[in-house]
């Protein structure tokens, strides 16, 4: 009887890996692409003293111009093995973001003036941001924007993450912009999140990405006196949703309780 009870306990614990996998199933992981402030498929061009916190890479293209006067805190990878691997990881992350179940459809609506909580937001075609977009959630909350074609922001637009626990701006979210073609950030835009573009990304004069990156799979990344990266207070690539963590905790508690009961019966 003791042996049978212990076997049942061992079998119940085998479900723990499934719960862990479930906790991360809805997360977007950039892999090695997560170290890049800028990653392009064809070329990276820069005008002025842009500042990139992180690596800069291009693959399968090899052209990088404008550094200096631009500066890179990390390493510049031009059509090398590291850049090629980053592109493969970017493709994986892009497809993962694209494949998530949608929380809300926003097709035809301007993001400006909205306040959104963590979730997956879908645009069948283009997405526009005019003004301020407020994203509100607990630290580590994930926001994914699935955009069928282009992402465009008007001049002086902004994306701001508000920590729902404090009500103050913070730098702890996971924000991913999956863009079906190309993204353009307007002059002076202050942006947050990782742009995963199928084609190209353009940051016009003075646009910035605080906690995030500009990652283009096939086309160019074009910069003009921009700041990218350096605005994150922690990791922003694989944090599971708070609700998923709650489910994981509940599952573990149930298993622990069942295990204790079975072990107790086996020993008496």
What this model shows, in words?
This protein has 268 residues and is an alpha/beta fold. The chain has one domain (36-229). It has helices at residues 2-13, 16-24, 81-98, 242-267, and strands spanning 36-40, 43-47, 51-52, 55-58, 63-65, 71-72, 76-78, 104-105, 115-117, 119-123, 127-129, 132-137, 142-147, 151-153, 158-163, 168-169, 174-179, 183-185, 190-197, 201-203, 208-216, 221-224, 227-228. The strands form three sheets. Strands 1, 3, 4, 6, 7, 8, 10, 13, 17, 19, 21 and 23 form a twelve-stranded parallel β-sheet that branches. It is globular, with a radius of gyration of 22 Å. It starts with a helix and ends with a helix. 38% of the residues are buried. The model is unreliable at 8-24 and 235-256 (pLDDT under 50).
Secondary-structure blueprint of this entry?
Elements: H1 2-13, H2 16-24, E1 36-40, E2 43-47, E3 51-52, E4 55-58, E5 63-65, E6 71-72, E7 76-78, H3 81-98, E8 104-105, E9 115-117, E10 119-123, E11 127-129, E12 132-137, E13 142-147, E14 151-153, E15 158-163, E16 168-169, E17 174-179, E18 183-185, E19 190-197, E20 201-203, E21 208-216, E22 221-224, E23 227-228, H4 242-267
Parallel strand pairs: 1-4, 1-21, 2-5, 2-22, 3-6, 3-23, 4-7, 8-10, 9-12, 10-13, 11-14, 12-15, 13-17, 14-18, 17-19, 18-20, 19-21, 20-22, 21-23
Antiparallel strand pairs: 15-16
């Amino acid at each position: 009887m003791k042996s049978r009870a212990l076997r049942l306990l061992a079998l119940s614990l085998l479900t723990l890996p499934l719960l862990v996998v479930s906790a991360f199933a809805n997360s977007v992981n950039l892999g090695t692409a997560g170290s890049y402030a800028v990653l392009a498929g064809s070329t990276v061009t820069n005008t002025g003293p842009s500042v990139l916190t992180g690596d800069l890479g291009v693959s399968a293209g090899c052209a990088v111009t404008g550094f200096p006067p631009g500066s890179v805190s990390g390493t510049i990878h031009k059509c090398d093995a590291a850049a090629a691997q980053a592109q493969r990881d970017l493709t994986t992350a892009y497809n993962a973001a694209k494949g998530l179940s949608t929380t809300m459809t926003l097709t035809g609506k301007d993001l400006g003036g909205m306040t959104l909580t963590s979730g997956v937001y879908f645009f069948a075609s283009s997405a526009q941001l005019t003004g301020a977009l407020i994203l509100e959630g607990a630290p580590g909350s994930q926001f994914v924007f699935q955009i069928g074609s282009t992402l465009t922001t008007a001049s002086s637009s902004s994306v701001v993450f508000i920590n729902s626990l404090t009500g103050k701006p913070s730098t702890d979210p996971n924000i991913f912009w999956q863009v079906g073609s190309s993204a353009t950030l307007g002059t002076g835009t202050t942006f947050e999140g990782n742009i995963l573009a199928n084609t190209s990304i353009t940051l016009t004069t003075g646009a910035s990405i605080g906690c995030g990156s500009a990652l283009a799979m096939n086309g160019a990344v074009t910069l003009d006196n921009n700041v990218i990266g350096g605005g994150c207070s922690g990791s922003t690539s694989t944090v599971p949703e708070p609700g998923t963590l709650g489910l994981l905790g509940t599952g573990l508690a149930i298993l622990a309780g069942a295990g204790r009961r079975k072990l107790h019966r086996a020993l008496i």
